[in-house]
TrEMBL record:
This is AB hydrolase-1 domain-containing protein. The keyword Signal applies. Residues 40-54 have a biased composition (Pro residues). SUPFAM superfamilies: alpha/beta-Hydrolases. It holds the Pfam family Abhydrolase_6. The keyword Signal applies. Residues 84-215 form the AB hydrolase-1 domain. Gene3D superfamilies: alpha/beta hydrolase. Keywords: Signal. InterPro entries: AB_hydrolase_1, AB_hydrolase_fold. It comes from the Bacteria.
Length: 282
């Protein structure tokens, strides 16, 4: 019996060691396994597409001196979207703004109201039904084109327009730039003002005096190098507003600067979007 006990002891000891090694092996192997890769981040939630805007519509409203002004309102889906009023140059009409309208209708959309100044386009009905033509205007009548812009501002802020823009900006071309500067000086809460080919006093209509009210305002003047009078005027306005005019190596005038120079379109769009809080993503 003693011999049997001694013979079994080594076997039992060996079995216990082997069992211990077997049980330890999974733990050792687990420690050698590579760490699991971190979970991939969830894809960003796509932003809601912008609702379709209302169809453009022609609108009419009356100035303080009884002139009926016609314009085209291109609203955004949201009634409180910022809005820009566009004022054409002498002898033209609201259709000249097509290049800029295409830019402002991109998402996020900026609403627009392009008007025909008195005596232009469809705005030929004066007080008492008189027919107006810009060819007959004297200097005093040209100065009253600022009233056309003020009437447009009052229209978009009123119930009849169907919009209630959080901010209103103004863009004018040539003598239209004088009209928007003069109207801005007489109106409260106007946002950015863009003057394309501004003049010191087109048709006797002073642009510098009302520009004094734009000190500290969001402002941009765009001029062609080959129009020295406009360059001088834009530089004076730049000093008043603490802004640098955009001087383009060109002889183009007014809205032709938008049509002929994509960098002008880029700059005007960027200034309007930044000042109106409607910058494009990316």
């Amino acid at each position: 019996m003693r011999r049997r006990t001694c013979w079994l002891a080594p076997i039992l000891a060996t079995s216990i060691v082997a069992l211990a090694c077997t049980r330890a092996e999974p733990a050792e192997r687990a420690s050698e396994r590579p760490a699991a890769a971190p979970a991939a981040p969830a894809p960003p939630t796509p932003s809601e597409p912008e609702a379709p805007p209302p169809e453009p519509r022609d609108v009419r409203f009356t100035t303080s001196d009884g002139v009926t002004i016609t314009g085209t309102l291109r609203a955004a889906a949201a009634p409180d979207a910022p809005l820009v009023i566009l004022v054409h140059q002498l002898g033209s009409d609201r259709s000249e703004w097509a290049p800029l309208l295409e830019r402002l209708e991109r998402t996020p959309r900026i609403a627009t109201l392009a008007i025909d100044l008195r005596g232009h386009g469809a705005s030929t009905e004066g007080d008492g039904g008189a027919t107006l033509s810009w060819r007959d205007f004297d200097d005093a009548t040209w100065a009253r084109t600022a009233d056309d812009v003020i009437a447009a501002i009052e229209f978009v802020r009123g119930d009849a327009s169907g919009v209630r823009p959080a901010r209103v900006g103004l863009v004018g071309s040539s003598i239209g730039s004088t009209a928007v500067i003069a109207a801005s000086a007489r109106s409260e809460g106007i946002g950015p003002v863009v003057a394309i080919s501004p003049g010191r006093a087109y048709r006797g209509f002073d642009a510098i005096t009302p520009a004094l009210a734009l000190a500290g305002h969001d402002f941009l003047a765009v001029v062609a190098r080959e129009e020295p009078d406009s360059v001088e005027t834009a530089s004076a306005m730049g000093r008043i507003t603490s802004t640098e005019p955009m001087i383009v190596e060109s002889g183009a005038h007014g809205v032709a600067l938008l049509r002929n120079h994509v960098e002008v379109l880029d700059r005007v769009e960027a200034v309007l979007r930044r000042a109106l809080g409607a910058e494009r993503e990316g």
